[in-house]
Structures are given as structure tokens and as C-alpha cells.
Amino acid sequence: MIRLPGAESSGEFDIVVIGGGPGGYAASLYAGSAGLSVAVVEKDKVGGTCLHRGCIPAKEFLETAAVYRTVAGAKEFGVQASQPTVEFAVSQDRKQKVVDQLHKGLSGLMKGRKNQIFEGTGRLLGNHVVEVRAADGSAKQIAGRHIVLAAGSVPRTIPGFEVDGKYVMTSDEVLSLTELPRSAAVIGGGAIGCEFASMMADLGVQVTLLEALPKLLPGCDKDVTDAVVRAFKKRGIAVRTGVSVEGHEPGDSGTTVKLGGGEELVVDTVIVSVGRRPLSDDLVAPEAGVNLDERGFVVVDEWMRTSAEGVYAIGDLVATPQLAHVGFAEAMLVVKQILGEKALPVNYGAVPWGIYCHPEVAFCGMTEDDAKAAGLQVVVKKDPYGGNSRARILGETDGVVKVICEKEPDGRAGRLLGVHMVGPWVTEQLGQAYLSVNWEATPEEIAPFVQAHPTLSEAFGETVIALTGRGLHVG
């Protein structure tokens, strides 16, 4: 075990991390692999929301929905099967097994890196001292030469929809269900709302998706959003955009949601999915010298440094994309600085995004509207999945690959600005597009790379070839 210069006290750690979610455990593992002494303060279980009440459980249920769709459509492939039914309690048990296995593996990794876990709620005091308060009210103090704040986030709520676990739920309650409702109103058409709406509709729930903004999936390219809306409506999801909600009134047969303009909607359950807020309540004492903004986010610079010397903040605590892999990147950035290694700030404008509704969405870089708003001249090419042979084989032809390039003075397509995909398994296809955007590659540089046939990933390769001016299957 190495220690940083100046860490003289045997009771002082090189790094104390408050929070054991993706950002926090990534910081601890990365620092531990470099031989630093690390303490992690976690009030629940390491893995955080992502592992226990977020990304992983949600994708498990979305996979249940995918299996259901596959069995229900088996006759199209000549496979005779009776109409499937869903035992959601069994899916819930499977989800928990997956989560428990991953938690066990993560705990073993942290133990192997000699990370020391302190169970309790962490609060940063002055002079890099962290108070750890256990569930029984007892407290102890630990100190670190460097502090990493990574306490994560919790679901946001809205007035008039108090969470009771019966009529009104957030993602936390939905992911603990053992039985699905017959009907549900999902408030919020962002990534989480669209995933829940998609999963429930596939499993037989009558879903109404309510979004206050003019379109679903804010931040996504319009062509992507339009494709998702078409697919949702085809599957019976009622999509309502530009609509306000004003409360609900429980009754004998569910609850009545009050919409703007005097409309009403009767459903069994309301799922509030309007984003997440940073869990910064009582996280730092005034004497710690850490500034928060009016929304509760910890204020940091591009290096994740707070207003207090030697104190960093990462993950959902800061106003950056609330993605586990962004937390990973921020954690490594912090540890590299602590080690005195070369580091580069995260380029948030080009991180990969994945949304796991059906059809899936994946993108990185600028949308077409973003690029034009920035004053850039663009060349755009789109390739629908309907022409992709593997998509035809799968029977999953909804969607499109859209590549946006900066236009060169001579009219040719220059560096890739953004890639936006909606369709089958696009979250697994984004890798080459992400690398191309971040390396500022041009179509001429990418086109010579050979794509395997028949594959879904050909759609990206074909689109890029077309951008050189001479396409194969794409005009």
C-alpha cells in the first residue's frame, strides 16, 4: 500500500469517498488499483441507485418485455407457441438474483483493492473530516487527504402527486412491483419515462405517456424522437405532449389524473418520472467551504474541483449528464489528478447515450438542430433499418441511423458532428460512431473500414460510405 506524500497519520486515508454508487465505487476501485488507501462511506449498499434501484433492474424488466415480445411473435417464424402470460413476481425474483450477483462481484472487487467500507450516512465537516452516522444514531469520524463527494441522486417529485406506493410511484417503487397494474399514466417523456412506458405496454399494461414539453426525449434528434413516437403509437401507447398535470384524486377504481384544460384520465397507477435531483441534503457542513447552486448541485469546475481545496464532486451530485458511465469518467479524472497524472476533462457534448425502450435509442454528439444553431453548415445522411438485411431477419425494421457532418467549403462531408440511432440493439452499435465523433473523423477516413455482413452495424457503415458521395445500398 502506497501513501501520498504528506499522509502521515495512520488514521488518515489518501481518499475518502462519500457514496458507493457508480461514481463513488469507480473512484475507489481506480484509486485502489493505484495503491492508494481509500475509505468509502455508504448508507445502503455499494452499487448505488444504478445497481439496486435504477439502470440494472430497469434493463432486467425491459429484457423480460423483449422475451415476451419474442414468444408472442414466434408464429411469424414458424414456431408454434401459445400466447404467453407474464408472472411478474418471477421476473422480480430474477431481477434480484442478477442484482445480488453483481453486488457480490462488486463487493469482492472493492475488498480486493483494499477499499475500506464504512456503513452510514456521510457528512463532510471542516478540514477534510467526514462524519459517518450509522442507522442506530452512533457516529464516528474519519479523515482523508482528498475527499470525493459522490452521494448520487433521488427521483424528483411534483406537487399534487405525493408518492404512496399504490396510486403514485417513482422508479423506486415501480422496480419493486411483483404485479403490474392494468393501466398507468407515466408523467415525463424523458429516458426513464419512455423505458417504463415501453416495458409496461409490452407486458399488457394500457399506458398513457404525458409530457409537458412539445416532444418526447428532450435532447434527442427530431428524427429519432419521431421514430420512437411512431413505434409507441403502433404498439398502443397513448402519447400526449404539451400537456400539464394538476393533481390526482383516488377512487374505487384507481385514480383520476387532472390534466390541463379540464381533461381527466382514470388509471390504476401514476408513475412520476420527471428526472432526479442531487442528494446533497446535509451532505456538507458550512465549515467545509463547498458551494452548492440553487438546485442543490455541488458547484465544480471542469476538473471536478469544488470551492474547497482537495474536495471533488462527481456523478449525479453535479450538473453533468446523469449517466453511470459519465460518473465513471469523472471518477477516473479525479483520481488521475490526485496521482499527478495527465488528465483531460470530460467532453460532455460527445458522451454516449443509451435509452433502452423499444425501439432503442443511442446517440452522441450534436443533433442537426444543435449544429445549425451553432452556425455550422451540415451534410446529413439517413439510413432506415428497413433496408438492413439483419433487421429484416429479426423482424425489427423500425428506426434509422442518422449521421451529421460539418460541410466543407467544397461541399464535401467533413468531420462527424453527431450520430443518432433508433432501432434494434442500437445501444450495442454506438461504439464505432462514438469513436468517430470523438476523433473528429471524416467519412473518407471511416468508409474504408469493412463492416461484417449481415449485421445491424452495417447501417452506420453504409451511411458513412454514402456521405463520401458514392454509396452502396444507401442513396
Enumerate the spans where pLDDT stays under 50 for 5 or more consecutive residues: 5-10
CATH topology title of the largest domain: FAD/NAD(P)-binding domain
Q: Mind telling me the C-alpha Rg?
A: 24 Å
- Percent strand equals 15-25%
CATH architecture assignment name of the largest domain: 3-Layer(bba) Sandwich
Q: Sheet with the most strands?
A: 7 strands, mixed
Assign a percent range to the helix content: 25-40%
- Our count of domains comes out at 3
Described by its quaternary structure, the protein is single chain
Distance between the termini: 60 Å
- Structural class by secondary-structure content: alpha/beta
Categorize the overall geometry. Answer: globular
Total DSSP helices: 13
Overall pLDDT confidence: 95
CATH superfamily of the largest domain: FAD/NAD(P)-binding domain
Count the beta strands: 22
**CATH level-1 class of the largest domain:** Alpha Beta
Question: Can you describe what's shown?
Answer:
The protein has about 475 residues and is an alpha/beta fold. The chain folds into 3 domains: about 10-155 and about 275-350, FAD/NAD(P)-binding domain (3-Layer(bba) Sandwich), CATH 3.50.50.60; about 170-275, FAD/NAD(P)-binding domain (3-Layer(bba) Sandwich), CATH 3.50.50.60; about 360-465, FAD/NAD-linked reductase, C-terminal dimerisation domain (Enolase-like, domain 1). It is about 30% helix and about 25% strand. Strands 1, 2, 3, 4, 5, 6 and 17 form a 7-stranded mixed β-sheet that branches. The chain has a 5-stranded parallel β-sheet with strand order 8-15-9-10-11. Strands 18-19-22-21-20 form a 5-stranded antiparallel β-sheet, with helices on both faces. Helix 1 (about 20-35) packs parallel to helix 8 and helix 3 (about 55-70) runs parallel beside helix 6 (about 190-200). It starts with 11 loop residues before the first strand and ends in an 8-residue tail after the last helix. The model is unreliable at about 5-10 (pLDDT under 50).
